[in-house]
Structures are given as C-alpha cells and as structure tokens.
C-alpha cells in the first residue's frame, strides 16, 4: 500500500502555477543509479507557516532514477518539469556541480527565477576555505573524531560535545531568505572573538547581502534544504534492508513520506494505482538490481535462490 500511495503522489496532476519553490537534490544508492528528487511548496504557503518546513508541507514534483547526471541532464529535467507544473519562483539546492550547472542553464531561459544556495552547505564551504589555511585544522579534526570514538561508549560519554547548532542557522530555518536576510544575520550572530571568526562572519554577511539583493520586498523562500535531506533520509531507512541489492521499488516510499494520509487521499491513491502500476513504473524506471546482476554473472544455485559456485580464476595465456 505504501508504494501505491507513493506512486500516486509522484504521478497525480499538480497545479500549474508560477509561485512554487522547488527544493532539489540527488540520492545515491549502491551501484550506478541515483535518484533525482524535487519537492515543491507554494510561496504563499511557506510565508504563512512561521516555522521550519515539515514533510507534509511539501509535494513530490519529480522522483526520477537516472544512471548518470550532469548540468545538461538536470537542465532538461527542469524544462520538462516546468512544462508540467509551471516555471518556479525559486530553485533551492546544495549546489552540487550538476544541480548548479543545470540551474544556471535554466536561469538563462527564465531570468526571473531565484537560484538559491542552501545556507548550511554555503557556510560549511566558507568554513572549509578559511580553516584549510591552517595546517593544524586536519590534525584537530582527526583528534576530535578519535576523542568522540573513545568517549562514546565509556564512562566519559557525558563529556562528548554535541553537534553545533548556531542561532543564525535557526533564523534561516524559521524565516527563510528574504530582503531582510542581511539585517537578520547581523542581529543573530555574536561579535567574533578572533581573526578567523571575524573572516567567517564577514563572509556570511557578504553572502547574505548578495542573496538579499535578489529579492523584492514581498518575496520570501526557504533558505535550508534540510527538508529534502530528511525525506531522503527517511527513504534510506525504509530502503535499508534492501540496500545491498541497489535501488529498488522501495524508493517510492520517499514520496509517501510527504503525504497527509487523509481517508480521501488514500482512497483515491489506492483506486488510481494498483500493484500492476507499481510493477510497470519499476520496469520502466529502475535498473536491474545488484542481485539480478549477480545471478546473471554467477548463475543460480541448486535451490534456485543462491548464486552457484563462482567461476574459477582465469589463467591467461600470453
């Protein structure tokens, strides 16, 4: 039933509108296949939330398994999606190379679209650039990992420091990107206490001012793509027990995770999507599993379930 509901979510018609925000990312399984995922939310809906995004705030606009991805492929996927649901107001991503290039190509055709960079990835790269100048940084990171491993399951586990969560990140999660981003960041970030921290803060201010400069006074969009990472994470947990076999039909469960399972929605989903439709979608979109390739190359055992004895070692003759 979960897979049928997920298939219905990705195939049902969506409104054709021009104020939708796309949040995009790829998820990677074992093997060569990755999955292109696009979540959407209307700008007016996001403006009214006043809180971080939750799964049920989103709709799955696209879930496409692909064998390869680059800027041109992502650009084509954006164009096809826009023809079905409308040109977006904003595209938000972690600026992976293919997503970044695809967004830039799409922007040439639609110059009014806002191309936004997830705040967490943006600040992480700023920190990496600054700290990599110091030769002690790599030693510090290794020491932190070793310390965490040693204390995690010991009597000193209470001394293991929590993962940092900054007030500035909280501001963006709740309020998003807008014309006021620069002033919100300046109000949220404490005065730096050393030169490196001051360089990072100045880089964040420069980034915030650049983002804010794109916006009209009334515009507001999400600044964090963590919602799509959460959906992907939930999908991976559902995929977990099948992960050794590559990407399977369980990938449809990612789409189910954003559904508000009202009686009417579930009834229509089960009426529209039968088991045979799930099988047809998988046959069209999913590659052969790792297990299928293993059986192809090694054959089946006598009981029909396990691979036969592996071929002997080749003895090349030169």
Number of strands: 7
Mean pLDDT: 84
Number of domains: 2
Spans of at least 5 consecutive residues with low confidence: none
Shape call: globular
Spatial strand sequence of the major β-sheet: 3-2-1-4-5
Share of residues in helices: 40-55%
Q: In the CATH hierarchy, what is the superfamily of the largest domain? A: Ribonuclease H-like superfamily/Ribonuclease H
Under the CATH scheme, the architecture of the largest domain is 2-Layer Sandwich
What summary fits the major beta sheet? 5 strands, mixed
Strand content: 5-15%
**Individual helix count:** 14
Fill in the CATH topology of the largest domain: Nucleotidyltransferase, domain 5
Name of the CATH first level of the largest domain? Alpha Beta
Element-level helix/strand string: HEEHEHEHEHHHEHHEHHHHH
- SS-based structural class? alpha/beta
C-alpha termini separation: 57 Å
How much is the radius of gyration in Å?
A: 23 Å
List the helices and strands and how they pair.
Layout (H helix, E strand, L loop, with lengths): L1 H10 L8 E9 L5 E9 H7 L9 E8 L4 H15 L4 E4 L3 H13 L4 E4 L1 H13 L4 H17 L14 H9 L1 E2 L2 H8 L6 H18 L7 E2 L4 H14 L13 H4 L6 H10 L2 H11 L4 H9 L20
Parallel strand pairs: 1-4, 4-5
Antiparallel strand pairs: 1-2, 2-3, 6-7
Give an overview of the whole structure.
This protein has two domains: 2-117 and 225-287, Nucleotidyltransferase, domain 5 (2-Layer Sandwich); 120-220, no CATH class. The model has no long low-confidence stretch (mean pLDDT 84). The strands form two sheets. The chain has a five-stranded mixed beta sheet with strand order 3-2-1-4-5, with helices on both faces. α7 packs antiparallel against α8 (181-188). The radius of gyration is 23 Å and the shape is globular. By secondary structure, the chain is an alpha/beta fold. 50% of the residues lie in helices and 12% in strands. The N and C termini lie far apart (57 Å). The longest helix is centred in the middle third of the chain and has 18 residues, at 195-212. A hairpin with a 5-residue loop joins β1 and β2.
């Amino acid at each position: 039933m979960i897979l049928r509901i997920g298939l219905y979510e990705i195939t049902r018609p969506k409104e054709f509108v021009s104020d939708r925000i796309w949040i995009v990312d790829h998820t990677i399984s074992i093997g060569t296949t990755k999955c292109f995922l696009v979540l959407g939310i209307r700008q007016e809906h996001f403006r009214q939330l006043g809180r971080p995004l939750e799964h049920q705030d989103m709709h799955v606009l696209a879930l496409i398994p692909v064998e390869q991805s680059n800027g041109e492929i992502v650009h084509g996927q954006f164009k096809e999606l826009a023809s079905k649901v409308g040109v977006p107001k904003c595209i938000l991503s972690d600026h992976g190379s293919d997503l970044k290039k695809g967004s830039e190509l799409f922007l040439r055709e639609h110059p009014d679209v806002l191309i936004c960079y997830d705040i967490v990835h943006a600040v992480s790269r700023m920190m990496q650039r600054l700290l990599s100048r110091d030769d002690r940084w790599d030693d510090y990171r290794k020491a932190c990992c070793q310390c965490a491993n040693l204390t995690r399951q010991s009597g000193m586990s209470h001394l293991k420091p929590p993962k940092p969560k900054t007030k500035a990140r909280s501001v963006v999660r709740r309020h998003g990107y807008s014309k006021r981003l620069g002033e919100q960041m300046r109000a949220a970030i404490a005065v730096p206490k050393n030169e490196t921290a001051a360089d990072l803060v100045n880089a964040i201010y420069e980034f915030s001012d650049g983002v804010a400069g794109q916006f009209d006074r009334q515009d507001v969009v999400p600044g964090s793509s963590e919602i799509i990472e959460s959906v992907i994470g939930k999908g991976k947990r559902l995929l977990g027990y099948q992960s050794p076999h590559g990407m399977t039909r369980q990938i449809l469960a990612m789409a189910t995770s954003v559904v508000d399972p009202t009686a009417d929605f579930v009834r229509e989903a089960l009426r529209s999507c039968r088991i045979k439709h799930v099988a047809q979608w998988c046959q069209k979109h999913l590659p052969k599993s790792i297990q299928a390739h293993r059986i192809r190359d090694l054959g089946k055992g006598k009981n029909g379930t396990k691979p036969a004895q592996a071929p002997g070692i080749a003895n090349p003759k030169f």
